[in-house]
Amino acid sequence: MTELSRRATALRALHRPGDPLILPNAWDAGSARAVVAAGFPAVATSSGAVADALGHADNEATPVDEMFAAVARIAAAVAVPVTADLERGYGLRPAELVERLLAAGAVGCNIEDSDPRTRELSDIEEQADLLAGIRAAAREAGVDLVLNARVDVHLRAYGPPAGRLAEAVRRARRYRAAGVDSVYPIVLADPEQIRSFVAAVDVPVNVLARPGAPGPAELAALGVARVSFGEGLYAAARARTVEMLAAIRAGAEVFPTGEEAR
Questions:
Q1: Eight-state DSSP code of residue 111
Q2: Which end of the chain is least crowded, N or C, by CB within 10 Å?
Q3: DSSP string, 160-200
Q4: Cα–Cα distance for residue pair 68/84, rounded to 1 Å
Q5: Residues 244, 254: contact at Cβ < 8 Å?
Q6: Which residue has the higher pLDDT, 179 or 262?
Q7: Listing from the earlier edge strand, what are the strands of the sheet with 21-23?
Q8: What is the DSSP letter of 10?
Q9: For residue range 159-190, what is the model confidence (pLDDT) as tens digits?
């Protein structure tokens, strides 16, 4: 476990408020290698992108063996820390989840606080128990993995809009007490609310980069410690592929020729 422990320590150290870890999420070994070749110091997976690439839907529709096999291929392809999006854990008990994650070669994971199937928020104490169990199992296994707790209040439009930020803060604080390393209020995009959230929680904050949200530089100024791109790169690659296929079907030239190819 020495190498995995070293990678977990390195991944945790990359979470710096104001100088965030940027994670363009990968979906297979090739995209993971491209992330590293571009100079990024860690690789994160996207459950939605991995699921689609494997021919499944998101929201835990991917067979658990296939998901961990995909994570293992990604981790084996790169020499940097890998953190895996594990949705809400695929129904695994904490010890088995940690065992399988470490066997795959990953040293971090995202865990959501809503049910992927019903899309309802989980009970806060049940979620805290799950996160604490994962933390304890990781320490028992000898690798203090980096645990990122996703907070789905805004994603699920939970409760009246005026109370969502306070509920997200309440959950983030409880998860911090359970031992997580960072919290992820997914789809929270208003700069002032992000600033307020960061100030209210004593833990590094992860924000999703997406259209209409602040970019990495602005998020850094707001004190964010981690910026994820979710399915963004995969969606862009798919869209570009669709464009090229349409052009090829229409008989257009899609590859550079002559001087342009040199």
A1: E
A2: C
A3: -HHHHHHHHHHHHHHHHHTT-SEEEETT---HHHHHHHHHH
A4: 9
A5: yes
A6: 179
A7: 21-23, 226-228, 206-208
A8: H
A9: 999 999 999 999 999 999 999 999 999 999 99
* CA separation for the pair 147, 17 (Å, rounded): 16
Residue 86 three-state SS? coil
- Per the CB < 8 A criterion, the answer to whether 167 and 158 are in contact is yes
Tokens for 68, please give them. 């961990």
As to burial, measured by CB atoms within 10 angstroms (0-12 exposed, 13-18 middle, 19+ buried), residue 202 is exposed
CA 19 to chain centre: 18
Judge contact between 198 and 190, C-beta under 8 A. no
Length of the chain in terms of residues written? 262
Q: Per residue in 82-132, pLDDT tens?
A: 999 999 999 999 999 999 999 999 999 999 999 988 999 999 999 999 999
